[in-house]
């Protein structure tokens, strides 16, 4: 059996896969990945969840393929979490939330993702229309997932 990728290898792979990508505020996308991984760690996440945090947007953003993920030297649990938090085109938010809730370990990763996405400092640099749209979107997803707002 092949050895699983180390945490450092997963981080390097995620940073490389998202190289050149920026978030809505124009910041390097790897900053978001690192914030989500740190958020998972701070919330008591385990190595599988931290690895999934680094990779949580890789398939959705076409940085890596679903086939690559299936063949990667990652735990089944890490792969399942990444697939659970990967939004699918045209998928209703309720179905997306249901898949996250049904996948062990995925809720913590999504909670850290939403916390960073909804960070007021991050949202403050966006135009008002985008900021309002995203604030509503994130609040709705937190409600569907039963996640309280971080104060």
Task: Please sum up the structure shown.
It contains nine helices and no strands. The chain has 151 residues and is mainly alpha-helical. Helix 1 runs parallel beside helix 3, helix 2 packs across helix 7 and helix 3 packs across helix 5.
Structure description:
With 151 residues, this protein is an all-alpha fold. The chain is built from nine helices and no strands. The protein has helices at residues 7-17, 29-42, 47-55, 66-71, 76-85, 93-102, 106-117, 120-124, 128-145. The longest helix is centred in the last third of the chain and has 18 residues, at 128-145. The model has no long low-confidence stretch (mean pLDDT 95).
Write down the oligomeric state. single chain
Q: Count of DSSP helices?
A: 9
Task: State the separation between the terminal residues, measured CA to CA.
Answer: 45 Å
Q: Order of helices and strands, N to C?
A: HHHHHHHHH
Mean pLDDT across residues = 95
| Low-confidence region ranges | none
Indicate the structural class: mainly alpha
Query: What is the overall silhouette?
Result: globular
Helicity level, as a percent range? 55-70%
- Tell me about the biggest sheet? none
Q: How many E-type strands?
A: 0
Share in β-strands: under 5%
